[in-house]
Amino acid sequence: MAPRESAILPGMNSRVARIDHIQIAAPEGCERVARDFYGSVLEMKEIEKPPILRARGGCWFECGSQQVHIGVEPNFQAAKKAHPAFAVFHLDELLETLRDRGVTVIEDDNLPGARRFYAEDPWGNRLEFVELPA
Whole-number mean pLDDT of the chain? Predict the structure, then answer.
């Protein structure tokens, strides 16, 4: 069998329409800190988890038309490479807010035409923040 072409084939419809949500792993008992960081600092609105899933712990947030789920993972280990990238308004303001809270911010200019930085959530998961044009 010949290797499949990696180029996008014109005229083909994708089976995947969009991302519905991402899940970020966190340790047990993460909910208060998740609400502070994702809710208060990043200003995402918390949404109610279905009753059957509440017993698992964690919490969910709206992020535009998608969702961010903070899920409890036994034997949690932070994701240091894999990460979500959040498109944000007022990148510099967020950068300063995170630094003021003691979060290490790593600015990055390796993506031509984009302003972005990396930071870690309270449990050490890598996050990317990319500025939306004004």
Answer: 92
Closest by CA to 26, choosing from 111, 124, 108, is 124
Query: Rounded to the nearest 5°, which phi and psi values hold at 97?
Result: -60, -45
| Residue 89 CB coordination number (10 Å) | 10
Q: How many CA atoms lie within 13 A of 60 on its CB side?
A: 15
Q: Are 35 and 51 in contact (CB under 8 A)?
A: no
- What CA–CA distance (Å, rounded) separates 98 from 30? 19
Distance, in Å, from the CA atom of 92 to the CA atom of 117, rounded to the nearest integer, reads 10
Q: What is the mean pLDDT of residues 46-71?
A: 96
Distance from the Cα of residue 76 to its chain's centroid? 17
For the entire predicted model, the pTM comes to 0.87
pLDDT tens by residue, 9-33 = 566 677 888 899 999 999 999 999 9
Pairing of strands 85-88, 105-108: unpaired
